[in-house]
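Hi U.,

Before I forget, here's the chain from the pilot set. I'm dumping it here mostly so it's searchable later in email.
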Amino acid sequence: MKYRCKICGFVFDEEQENQKFIELPNYTCKMCSAPARLFEIVENDYLIDAETVVPNAVKINEDNIAIRRIVEDCINCGQCKLTCTKKEGLDFGEDSSLCVNCGQCITTCPTKCLKPINDITRLEEAKQNKKICIAYISPATRVTFGEIFNLPYGTFTLSKLVGFLKHNMGFDYVLDTTFGADLTIMEEASELIERLKENKNLPMFTSCCPAWVKYAESFYPDLVPHISSCKSPIGMMGSIVKNYFTEINHLDKDNIFTVAITPCTAKKYEITLEGNQDTNAVITLYEIAEYIKKNHLKYEDIKEEEMDTILGEGSGAGVIFGNTGGVMEAALRTTYHFLTNKTLQNLEFTSIRGLDGVREAIVKVDDKIIRVAIVDGMSNAKRLLKEIEGNPDKYQFIEVMNCVGGCIGGGGQPLINMDDALKIKNERIKGLYKRDQEKNIRSSYENPDIIKLYNDYLEKPLSPKAKKLLHTKH
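Structure:
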């Protein structure tokens, strides 16, 4: 049986919660904290068919590149709209072209009628057409893949994920997007230093989160010159795979099919943009979870494999990209080195870690002071943007991530109980920081494969070739 909150529309599904509502007299609504007495039984005829308008639901167009709604499973509870307007601070009404594709509505939908667009079928078509299929794995997926098999939250399962992609999904090569993250840092740190020297278009905002970039373009167009011109790690991986990887491996670039394995639905939108189309498809962990359940795969039956290393593995700095604050921390490690030619004694910027929504720090680099801010959650970003309107010189560098917790909280991650969301996200975050601490190479500029790529192909950060392949226009 289902019970609907009369105040906000949240639906308590006894089957999903594995708990009788009547046994919870002190229950309060997850969305608005209304007491149990303000819930009503959802009658069967409240379910709607595919032709019915859903006025309480957030508008999802049929041509939405990232998200789909199974209308017949929708109960018109309005929780998706509340997630969008209250949690994310977005209210685009009927103009669903302004949807930032973040997928946070997917994470809170009580009936699972909202899902990422499934691109596994495109992979199957590519294999049937004898394409060489190449996957690259985003940092945050390696601490959430195990959740599909009920492993403890934050468990690092990279070798199993690689084995699954190679043996169960049929990829010919599996590469590491943390390598692309290292590339992003090399370019982004160089861009920041250039802007600091010229005192131009500061503060600089990170550009790794496509939901944030689309939000800024749509609602704060004056900020666009302040957004880094760097492609995201996935954008850089696609470009380098298509132009460098194919060259050194003597592959026909027109016969490869590249797939980003991500925690993020907005990446499905990003790869349609001009300059980012070297990635052919995005498959989220949510889609992988559905594939695994449909095929009844067991964790113990999945082989462990190592990633292909022709493009190299990423550094610890690349790994923490999956956490809110991780991009900033990684960038500061390399920026410090570029400005001083020294190595930071303490690589961990603990003051910018956590889930406080907005954090800030002052970083001293010899005689220079760099003021930075980190924000996750678009409603928090709106608050920060309003603050700097009156004080535009307060920060020099700002990281923005749409999802609370960063990519570890992405709309394409395996679904979790939202009551435990902060606890689970903290475990995922700890899993990535633990991996960073275990790595021998923890800064992007120290990665020997990155050094080789610049020496053999790109020359240096911000070179004409690097700008052509690794940068874009917003």
